[in-house]
Amino acid sequence: MIVAHLPAGYIVSTLLFHRFKKYGVPRSVFLRAGLLGSIAPDLDMIYFYGFDHRAHPHHSYFSHFPSVWLLLLTLAILCFQHCRQKKLPLLALIFTCNGMLHMLLDYIASNIYWLAPFVNRPFALITVPSVYQDWWLNFLLHRSFALEILIVLWAAYLWRKQCMARSS
Ligand SMILES: [Zn+2]
Q: Where are the transmembrane segments (predicted)?
C-alpha cells in the first residue's frame, strides 16, 4: 500500500472516536495517536535505507510482523480493560489497532510474514507483477490501486463531513 495508510488510519480513528468519546480524550489527540499508528510500521524505512542499505525487504523486519502488532494490541486492550486511568491505554489502543490495520492493508498487494518469527515465509493476497523498473509504478498502475483511491475518497468524505459539522 502506498498512499492509503494514513487515510485508512483517519477513517478508523474517526469512526472509533464516537465509541470512546466518554473517556475524555480530545478528538485531536485520539486522531494523532491513530494516524501515527497507521504509519508507524513504515518508520522502519529509516533503517531500510539508512542502515540496512536495502539488503532485506523492510516487510521482513519485526516492525512489520503481525505477531508483534497483535501482541501490542492485546496488551493495549488488557491495559484499557484493567487500568483505572483509561486515557493513555486508549491512545495505545488506537495506535496499535491502526498498526494492525497497516499489516492487513500491506497484505493485500505485498508480502507480509504472518507467521514470523516462527515461520520465515511471506504471504500476499495479490501479487503485483514487476513490469516497470520503478517499483512504485508497478503498484500505481495495478488494479489493486483502485482500493487505495477508494480509501482516500472515503477519508476525504469523512474529513469534509467533520469540517462541515464543526462550522455549523
Ligand atoms: Zn508497511
A: 29-49, 61-80, 92-115, 135-159
